[in-house]
Design goal:
Layout (H helix, E strand, L loop, with lengths): L5 H7 L6 E2 L7 E2 L2 E5 L9 E7 L4 E2 L2 E4 L2 E2 L2 E8 L1 E5 L5 E3 L4 E4 L5 E5 L5 E7 L2 E2 L2 E4 L5 H5 L8
Antiparallel strand pairs: 1-3, 2-5, 3-4, 4-13, 6-15, 7-14, 8-11, 8-13, 9-10, 9-12
């Protein structure tokens, strides 16, 4: 369900907006918000709710790891996109789960006319790091058409 209005979205976003994602703003086109759901000092698996304003998306990036690693996205509200390099973008809806292995170049974010939220689960591994790459171009983003959901 596409959600255009912030107040309506806030009522659907069960895990909360959190704070502006200023620490990672340089890796996003548009505004995002981060709400950590666990304390990384006491929990081995980091989970955070990430909220994207309409049209917001993160840059292409790769989750690096010597062993293990990667990310899981659990979509919770609104509508978004996920795309791996060389593949068509797929539509993300509440209830969609995306498993992203370490080493896969990808991006994710909101559709241009909907707020979007997902829980990001960082998979434990050794020597893990995010490699942030180039932004998703406006031309490529604007050309997206709905494709099959995962």
């Amino acid at each position: 369900m596409r959600v255009h209005n912030r107040e309506t979205f806030e009522s659907l976003n069960a895990f909360g907006f959190g704070q502006p994602n200023s620490a990672y703003a340089q890796y996003f086109s548009g505004n995002s918000y981060l709400n950590p759901l666990v304390d990384p000092q006491t929990c081995a698996v980091f989970l955070a709710n990430v909220t994207f304003e309409p049209g917001c998306r993160n840059n292409w990036h790769i989750h690096r790891a010597q062993t293990g690693g990667g990310q899981v996205l659990i979509c919770t509200a609104g509508e978004g996109w996920y795309q791996e390099e060389g593949k068509a973008a797929v539509s993300l809806l509440p209830g969609t789960v995306v498993a992203i292995p370490a080493g896969v170049k990808h991006w994710h974010g909101a559709k241009r006319d909907s707020w979007f939220a997902h829980i990001a689960v960082e998979i434990p591994g050794t020597q893990t790091a995010n490699e942030w790459l180039e932004p998703v171009s406006d031309a490529a983003y604007d050309a997206l058409e709905p494709h099959e959901s995962l």
